[in-house]
Each structure stands twice: as structure tokens, then as C-alpha cells.
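Record 1 of the preview.
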Amino acid sequence: MPKRTSYAQGTPNWVDLQSSDPDAAKTFYGGLFGWQFDDQPMPGGPPYSMAIKDGESVAAIGPMSPDLAAQKVPPFWNTYIAVDDVNAATAAAKSAGGRVMMEAFDVVEAGRMSVVADPSGAIVNLWQARRHIGASVVNEPGTLIWNELLTDGSEATFAFYDKVFGLTAEVSEMGGNPYTIFKLGDDMVAGSMAPPMEGIPNHWHVYFAVEHIGPALEKALQLGGTVINGPMPTPIGPMATLSDPQGATFSLFEPSGQTS
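->
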């Protein structure tokens, strides 16, 4: 996969983990995906650890914020979506029925971001790139391959992503079940479905590619992870949902190369 040098507005471009134990999380994901880490100092706080795969930045791990830790929020993966102008996109999110959780702010020289919740309550980060475009490699083993909005939201939720990012929602089928594809022009950039089990909050879920899902699941278990569901066959390849030792959920996907 060629190195990414930019992302069009509306494309998920980065993921990071807010963990209750970043060092333990680095051991887990480093062992599972072969990631190495470059600890970036942050003003007035602990480091932000960039996950490096074959010399390229693919994700990051950082600590839970004190506020979230105090609320006993479990660790979670964040999805970022690229925007051309984060101030304008944040204002659009507000007018489209979303809630602004954090107003736009600069992240040193890397970029500018804000945090918003869509009308169904799912939180997503908006990223205006400067020096950091997001993941420089995706869709290869050990890297991000898909972002999926799990939501029980109404049409207002899908209208939100159209108004803010220019994403159109098309309903298709996945293994006989309805599945919504977010498209940017003709490109499929993300997906959406209802939460698969009762009690799962609306959120953006992340998938990482693996070469072979069986050995990857065995490795995850050896490293202290938990398999929540799967592996399950799909028309495009087997996948499984896991949690890391601190409780953050994510999925593994072994792409088959099929598109239908």
C-alpha cells in the first residue's frame, strides 16, 4: 500500500487509544501488531505514544484524561475524521444537531482539532492536518482498515454526517443483514450499523487488519486480551471483536479481497 500523504474531508484518518495503563497497552498492541512506539512529549502532561509500523505512523496510545478517569469511563479507541477547516466543521456540527464536547484547539504544530458528539451521542474527533495528516499507512496487516459507527440513531444522525463532512449514507447488505456505507463521492470510507448487543453505547468502532485471524486471536489471548465475539465469517473476510487487558474494544479483520 502506497504511503498516504493526505486525506479528503470526510475520511477517517487517525485512531488513538485513551488507556488507563498506557504502558501495559503498548505491550499488548506492540505484541499483537508488531508496533514500536515513539513517545512524543506533550505540554504539561504525559507523553503521547505514536505507534510505528515499518517506519510509518499508524495509530497512537495515550492516557485517559483525569476527568474521564474520575468518571470511571472504560478505555476506548477514538476515531478522527479529516476536515479542511475545523472551525467551520465544528460550527456545522453544532448547527446539524451535534454537541461540541471540546471547541477547536491547536495540537502543537501537528494540527488543529475539536471533539463533537453526533445526534445519537457517538463521539468523533475532527482533525485539520498541519504536519500530521493522520495514519501514513492503512489497510495493511497491523494497521487501521475500517471505522464503523455503531448507532441506534435516526435519519438525523446520517444527515449530520452529510451536513458536516459531505458523507452520503447508502444501505446495503452484509451477510443478509442491513449495513450502511458512508460514501465520499464514489469511495466507501466508513460503515454503520446498530449496536450488536444490548447495552453497547453508540460509538465509533475501529478495525485493524491482520494477515490470518486465527493466529492473531491466539496471540491476543496470550497477551491478556479477551475475545468478545468471533471469529465470524463475512462475505469480505473473517472478523472478530476483542477487548484489550484494560477493557478497550476493537476488531480484527482478515480481508479476503472480495468486494461482494
